[in-house]
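User: Could you check the structure of this?
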Amino acid sequence: MQPYLRVEHQLLRDGAAFTSVHEKMVYLLLQSYAGRDGLAFPSHQTLADAVPCGKTTVKNCLQTLTEKGWIEKAERFDRHGGQTSNGYRIRTVSPDTSRQDPGQETATGETPVDTKEKGVKKQSLKKEPPSLRHDLTEIIHHFETEIGRVTPSIRRQLETLLKETSPAVLHHAIEQATAANIRNFNYIKVIINSLKQRNLLTQEQIEMHETRRRTSVARSSRRKGHGKLPDWVERERRQQQQAEAEQKQRFEQTVPDQGELAVLLAELI
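Assistant: Sure, the predicted structure tokens are below.
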């Protein structure tokens, strides 16, 4: 993890882009936690402790940031189809990034370039992808937050698995283990190896696979539902039970009780 976060002056100084200081802090923290794929996985409690504020405030800020288009919610699911905690993807181009008209001077006295020039300039100044060490640091932080302490042995294995797969695979495996409440490194390795064998190495591939699997499970459930007996069979079963109960009641009424048996015996004697 890099020791700093680069933030544009305009974003930091704009008092109209966010509705509150809490919302701006949550957005900056999500940028801080985002990995190479643009996804951030901090829990609500982690964000609340860092702002600082309450978890309810964090949830409200995430909702308004999503509605404004600053972030995109990425729903995640475990291997059983149950929904786990959400991730959030930072938009590469923030909405309303340029609030000034062409030719208007900025706060630094410079004249901003037009949209095309700005796009070319940003592209030319695009940072290189984060290094393997940066990805490993993000994964270790995620592991220690959700699973437990990373020993030197686990660190070496995580680095090897990262080289063989991708950061998305390791983050997904950690989330799956957390959702299943199986905080065990061997369980995480099983998930990683399973994704590796299926050649699911990117976040998009994993999400598509989970979507297809949930669809298959839903279809299987509907097919099982088609095996239910028709309503007329159930009606006939209830009618049969009612007839048997009435027949039993009539039989019990014809059988004499103990008093009647005593009278009959006395008459015979």
